[in-house]
């Protein structure tokens, strides 16, 4: 029995959708794993927005410096993620 072409296309579309769903779930799982490794709710990490100033400088807000107990000369690790926004 010959399978109509449109059924073959529907099966291919279904398979593609299942693959996309699997890829999406894998990406979500990876992101959740990454987020849990960041320990965002620990007292030694702050998440805040900053504007890049002249010379590439950014400032840590005073409230975050106080919460972290930062003082001049302390070494910190910075992870930069560009956000959308004003150009």
Features:
47% helix; elongated; 87 residues; single chain; 0% strand; mainly alpha
Shape: elongated
- Class inferred from helices and paired strands: mainly alpha
Number of helices: 2
Strand content: under 5%
Q: Give the terminus-to-terminus CA distance.
A: 61 Å
Mean pLDDT: 83
Following the backbone from N to C, one meets helices and strands in this order, namely HH
Uncertain stretches: none
What is the helix content?
Answer: 40-55%
Number of distinct beta strands: 0
Main sheet overview: none
- Cα radius of gyration in angstroms: 23 Å
Structure description:
With 87 residues, this protein is mainly α. The chain has helices at residues 5-38, 62-68. The chain is elongated. 47% of the residues lie in helices and 0% in strands.
């Amino acid at each position: 029995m010959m399978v109509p072409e449109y059924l073959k296309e529907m099966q291919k579309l279904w398979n593609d959708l299942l693959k996309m769903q699997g890829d999406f779930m894998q990406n979500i799982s990876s992101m959740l794993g990454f987020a849990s490794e960041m320990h965002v709710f620990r007292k030694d990490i702050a998440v805040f927005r900053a504007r890049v100033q002249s010379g590439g400088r950014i400032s840590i807000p005073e409230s975050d410096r106080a919460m972290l107990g930062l003082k001049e000369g302390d070494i910190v690790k910075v992870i930069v993620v560009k956000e959308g926004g004003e150009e």
